[in-house]
Amino acid sequence: MSVxxxxxxxxxxxxxxxxxxxxLLRSMGGFSNFAxxxxxxxxxxxxxxxxxxxxxxxxxxxxxxxWPIVAFFxxxxxxxxxxxxxxxPTAGALYHWAAILKNKRWGWYTAWINLIGQIxxxxxxxxxxxxxxxxxIASVFGYESSNTTVLVCFSVILLTHGILNHIGIRIVAxxxxxxxxxxxxxxxxxxxxxxxFTKGSLNPVSYLFKVGETFSDKPYMFAFLIGLLQAQxxxxxxxxxxxxxxxxxxxxxxxxWGIFTSVAYSFVIGFIMLAFVTLSIKDASAAAGxxxxxxxxxxxxxxxxxxxxxxxLVTAAMWFCGLASITSxxxxxxxxxxxxxxxxxxxxxxxxxxxxxxxxxxxxxxILSFLLAFIDYLIKMVNxxxxxxxxxxxxxxxxxxxxxxxxxxxxxxxxAKAEGRFQDKHLGPWNLGKYSNAISIVALLWIIFICxxxxxxPNQMAGYAVAGMLILxxxxxxxxxxxxxxxxxxxxxxxxxxxxxxxxxxx
Length: 507
Prior knowledge:
Layout lengths: L2 H15 L12 H12 L4 H4 L1 H8 L2 H27 L6 H8 L2 H38 L5 H21 L1 H29 L22 H8 L1 H6 L5 H4 L7 H29 L4 H6 L3 H10 L1 H35 L6 H4 L10 H24 L7 H29 L17 H18 L6 H25 L11 H11 L1
Helix pairs in contact: 2-9, 2-13, 2-16, 4-5, 4-10, 5-13, 5-19, 5-20, 6-7, 6-19, 7-8, 7-16, 7-18, 7-19, 7-21, 8-16, 8-18, 9-13, 9-16, 15-16, 16-18, 19-20, 19-21
């Protein structure tokens, strides 16, 4: 028997201990697991699409200081999540962790809050692709880009992602592997182009760390905090490595490393990219006032044709990011429906017999993501003078939804450890050892801080959206939860002690 077969048998047995059969195709290696999170983080999506947001509020210093500050705290969050993924390797991830560490109600709320964030991140990513792709297409075919044409482009992009995810995990896994290398290659091309072919000279390095300049009407320190959305939204979606954990070989080791290293590499590569883009700025005020600051900076620095080629390469990277985000979202929904957590759960938990993918969950993810952007489109039609941008709205919703969902199991792990219900013997092979509690506390404080920042003006629309969704969640709790949700199999009569005991019996 091959090493791979031995691993797959062990992984299947490991999953069985949590009450689940091996239904999804387990074919992803360590790089593929890393690649899906790296592709969703996508420094060529978050850092680029919100470049104007960061520049407007925090000036050039947002890139020099804001990006590293956010990255440091996000690495703390990622490390704690990696530790939990190693201990509880199921596709339900966040809500399975919450259910096992506390109870099924905590798990249910975590799943729905995560669902809100997943809708926001998919909509935000694919809308970012449309914001870049539509003007580029418009310049070729001679039409004028507008909110309507962007929405149509957004719909087509969503459709392509749905089809590819439906067809099969092998194709998507290969594309995600390619995406990781493609991101690195495009960043290298962008950096080298700006370093050697920028019109005129680059700004001095000190410009990257210039503070006190804002192009908003807010005091600088407050504006700087608002501008952190650029980096914070970029560093989302790395829980994808946990959501695809049942498709990963040797998941207790490979998925945690996928979570952590995807953030670490994105930090370093993203900082290098942002540094050169910022140092190539000719007129920061004009860039901040343009419809797309990144496109403006690249076009001014590299010229029309060369700049357009670079922008097409960046847009393609964004498309790969959206593809991976649908994969993650659909797996989360599949796992939740498998536990009867959603209305019509039997539909969303179905696996395509031909492709062995959660096909109906994939298309539900597409529909929900489209609706969030479409509702915003209708609001803009009724109120065309609205000051917030669609991309800031979608990204803030995803940050709050995802990070609250990240924070719940981190908080519950601290409580469970304090009460003696979660001990060192329950940890997986990837763990933080004696630093676990300290890093968990830092991560939790950052999550609380950033979620408050993301819903105060001018991002209040995101706060209203999240509040509205939470109200619907309470209504669903009263009407659906008590009658229909038995709880995840991972938590039903399976405390960490029992899982550990069963593990020893099977060894």
